[in-house]
Amino acid sequence: MIFYFSGTGNSAWVAQQLAQQLNDRLCFIPDELKGEANYKLRANEKLGFVFPVYAWRVPKFILKFIRRMKVENVSYVYFVATCGDDSGRMDHYFKRAAQRKGWKVACGFSVIMPEAYVSLPGFDVDDKLKENRKLREAKTRLDDMATFIADSRQGRFETIPGRLPWTKSIVLGWFFNTFLMSHKPFHTNGNCNGCGKCAKVCPLNNIEMKAHPEKPADPETMASPLRPLWHKDCVGCLRCYHSCPQRAIEYGRFTKGKGQYLHP
Predict the structure, then answer these.
(1) How far apart are CA 21 and CA 122, in angstroms?
(2) Residues 6+ apart with CB under 8 A from 47
(3) Residue 61 placed within a domain
(4) Is 79 helix (H, G, I), strand (E, B) or coil?
């Protein structure tokens, strides 16, 4: 059983590839958050988690979901995390969460995927050449990982910590989660036509289309007077930003002029 979360599609692709090669079933974590989170694994079934790295850590809402889970017949646990360049000591946070559940983590990996984080200065999507190279290399790496997991082997942890991993995960990760994980900077620019795609693609149904008091419907273009309103359950996946066909969504002043990316 593979539990996964994905915003721009990188982790979804990884989870789907693993499910196909391991003949396993997929569970999308936002959907599972709505239920009781009680599960029973089949005989010899593995428990896997696939997720993106946020601020060199495991996303907080995924750790919260793991705390809620009640899983029977756990014998093999693994994780695969996607990142743009490196993942810091993300593995420490996952192992600690698993330990609190009484689970021993058999193996864990990070997979470098095309960059999607654009919400701070210095961060932007990759150019097409780099994007295509990362996708090719990810496929080869994933085939190797799937073979290792399928054989029920243990003790392999390849998480691409990068430079100064503890500083990134503890110091920068804390700063990011404390001050920068907020729905408030999201807004639309003048390109927004109220199509509502951002609300439709939000994996946590956190965006509501509401009438804008200062922007009535245009009688000539028949553009919608509705505009997106972000609620507090935003996890910062940026799917709304990357999916907007009008390039109308901004995060503060940090995303102006930056690119968009969705897994092909």
Answers:
(1) 37
(2) 1, 3, 41, 71, 74, 76, 77, 78, 103
(3) yes
(4) strand
Say yes or no: 152 and 233 in one domain: no
CA distance 48 to 19: 10
The answer on 242 and 122 residing in a single domain is no
> How many other C-beta atoms are found inside a 10 Å radius of the C-beta of residue 42?
10
Q: Show which of 154, 177, 200 is a domain's final residue.
A: 177
| CA dist., res. 9 & res. 39, Å (int) | 25
**C-alpha 156, offset from chain centre:** 23
The 10s digit of each residue's pLDDT in 22-46 is 999 999 999 999 889 999 999 999 9
Handedness of CA 242, 247, 251, 257 (dihedral sign): positive
What gap in Å lies between CA 18 and CA 4, rounded to an integer? 11
- pLDDT tens digits, 68-97: 999 999 999 999 999 999 999 999 999 999
Given a contact cutoff of 8 angstroms between Cβ atoms, the answer to whether 193 and 228 are in contact is no
Q: Per the structure block, which two tokens stand in for 52?
A: 């993106």
Tell me phi and psi for residue 51, to 5 degrees. Answer: -160, 160
Distance CA(225)–CA(215), nearest Å, equals: 6
Query: Which one, of 64, 183, 32, 161, lies nearest residue 108 by Cα?
Result: 161
CB-based contact 80:17 (threshold 8 Å):
no
Buried b (16+ CB within 10 A) or exposed e, 202-217: bbbebbebeebeebee
